[in-house]
Specification:
17 helices; eight-stranded parallel β-barrel; binds ligand 1PR; 2 domains; amino-acid biosynthesis; 535 residues
Length: 535
């Protein structure tokens, strides 16, 4: 019966497991949710996608009696798949806000990556595995990339050796998956790892006898550089939600009607980019700064629909801030973000509000815990919080003309200026502030941002290449990943940004929307240039 073949899902309500649900359904299975510990004991097949922080998860599991049920279920060697935190919780303890005790089934302590080794933390992106032992669910991966996003990891040791089915190298070898009998857990996200990830889930869900091993392909070895497709979304004058694209942030046609440029439908384009091999898809609700995003239900609908068919990470930005609506009801930025996460976002991106928070933090040197960055990263983790920077170049004759960080620019300004500082803006570039991209990046990293999406208004939509001076400045200033954005016009621009700067990812919009350069060509070019990408 269907009830017998249903997959039991342990969702303790701490975050977004929508994508795991979508992936299971996409593979044709029904889902039964765990309500009581007995549901765990009676499961035929249990998936545990851990989300949120370690301590909070253990708290819920202990209080509800589910911790004990899980231990019993696993000790009986019943089919189990833990994902991400669902792997970490099997260990003895974690250093995350701790030490905090875990389920204690696997010897070892979960610790934080050490960013002093020159590797960026969180570890975000597509990485290769080293298979340590025969494990059916990993058989299709071979040496293709899978998607990781985490700051904590379990380490291989003599005591846990018999559990390890694969490791991953990110500055050090950490545990990428464990397996004993029918019990499996993976640190990466199969539900966000495209086709390769879906096959991990399929192999876990299908009877073993139906599985054949596929020949391995590719030659993944380390963290791949990501190629991200970005969709700037807004409502046009007719009231339809469209993908638009600006020139230096001006999205209107230069015609008599002055209409908003329409480059397609958000859900369709996102689906297309997933098929074309985008490593991530970002939606920026570009009028979010003036509209209340929770009133903007079409955007939530776009996320819901997209996440049903797109199995790579989704980021959404625009309008994330504390807000009081027309009826006087107050919404915290955390509530706004939560709604985005529930609708299928993996990361949220904060623009204007991050500028205000950074200004305040620099002025007072106090972390209040109240800024949107702090609130959201505390609950969902740093890796879920992206800060989008929208800077504009301000040329200088002399770097000491400002008290902000200035750099020598490759191309001098209109009056032969050899220096510039990068002025942050808010409200979609409409207002310049007295803070530079450099100062902002350092401040938001301290406040808990996990990644930076670095735009440049001067380069946006120009197709003349990324602002290498800016991207070098910022990617050398912080130890969180930096996404280079604005200005891609040819495949060579991508290899340039990856060879000349420490960017972890490159994002483009216009060339993909106008079908000038397919994502696949970008990847092939990068491979040819010896830059590792996911194929
Ligand atoms: O301030 O938190 O509400 O967030 C608003 C968000 O919307 C910010 O992330 C901001 O970057 C974005 N945004 C606001 N106005 C515009 C606009 O274009 N008028 N778009 C805008 C930003 C820049 C990139 C673009 C790249 C690549 N667009 O997202 O996709 O520059 O383009 P290209 O490859 O075509 O050069 P808040």
């Amino acid at each position: 019966s269907t009830a017998d073949s249903a997959v039991t899902l342990l969702d303790y309500g701490a975050g977004n497991v929508r994508s795991v649900r979508n992936a299971i359904r996409h593979l044709g299975f029904e889902i039964k949710d765990v309500q009581t510990p007995a549901d765990i004991l009676n499961a035929n097949c249990l998936i545990f996608p851990g989300v949120g922080a370690f301590a909070a998860a253990m708290d819920v599991l202990n209080k509800t009696g589910m911790a004990e049920a899980l231990c019993t279920y696993i000790e009986k060697d019943r089919p189990f798949l833990g994902i991400c935190l669902g792997l970490q919780l099997l260990f003895e303890s974690s250093e995350e806000n701790g030490p905090v005790n875990g389920l204690g089934l696997i010897p070892g302590v979960v610790g934080r990556f050490d960013s002093s080794k020159g590797f960026r933390v969180p570890h975000i992106g597509w990485n290769a595995l080293q298979i340590a032992k025969e494990t059916e669910i990993l058989d299709d991966i071979g040496n293709r990339h899978v998607y990781f996003v985490h700051s904590y990891r379990a380490m291989p040791s003599h005591e846990n050796k018999e559990w390890i089915s694969s490791t991953c190298n990110y500055g050090e070898d950490f545990i990428a998956s464990v397996r004993r009998g029918n019990v499996n857990a993976v640190q990466f996200h199969p539900e966000k790892s495209g086709d390769v990830g879906l096959s991990v889930l399929r192999r876990f869900l299908l009877p073993k006898s139906s599985l054949t091993k596929k020949p391995t392909a590719g030659k993944a070895s380390k963290l791949a550089k990501r190629v991200i497709a970005c969709l700037d979304v807004r409502t046009n004058d007719k009231g339809d939600l469209v993908v638009t694209k600006g020139d230096q942030y001006d999205v209107r046609e230069h015609t008599k009607e002055n209409e908003v440029r329409n480059l397609g439908k958000p859900v369709e384009l996102a689906g297309q980019y997933y098929k074309d091999g985008a490593d991530e898809v970002s939606f920026l609700n570009i009028t979010g700064f003036r509209d209340f995003p929770l009133g903007d239900l079409p955007m939530l609908q776009v996320l819901r629909c997209t996440s049903e068919n797109v199995f790579v990470p989704l980021t959404v930005g625009g309008g994330i801030r504390d807000f009081t609506d027309a009826n006087g009801r107050y919404y915290s930025s955390l509530e706004v973000a939560s709604e985005y996460f529930r609708s299928g976002a993996d990361k949220i991106s904060i623009g204007s509000d991050a500028v205000y928070a950074a200004e305040e933090y620099i002025r007072t040197k106090v972390k209040t815990g109240k800024s949107s960055i702090e609130q959201i990263s505390r609950v969902y983790g740093n890796q879920a919080v992206v800060v989008s920077i929208d800077p504009r170049r301000v040329y200088l004759k002399n770097p000491s003309d400002v008290e902000l960080k200035a750099v020598r620019v490759t191309d001098p300004g209109p009056n032969g200026e050899e220096y510039a500082w990068y002025q942050c803006t808010v409200s979609g570039g409409r207002e310049g502030r007295l803070i530079g991209a450099y100062e902002l990046a350092k401040a938001v990293e301290e406040l808990g941002a996990g990644e930076i999406l670095l735009n440049c208004i001067d380069c946006d939509g120009q197709g003349k290449g990324f602002d290498i001076d800016l991207i070098k400045l910022i990617s050398d200033a912080v130890s969180i990943p930096v996404i280079a954005s604005s200005g891609a016009g040819a495949v060579e621009h991508f290899s340039e940004v990856f060879t000349k700067t420490n960017a972890s990812a490159a994002l483009a919009a216009g060339i993909f929307h106008r079908k000038e350069v397919p994502i696949q060509s970008v990847k092939e070019h990068l491979l040819k240039e010896g830059i590792e990408v996911r194929i």
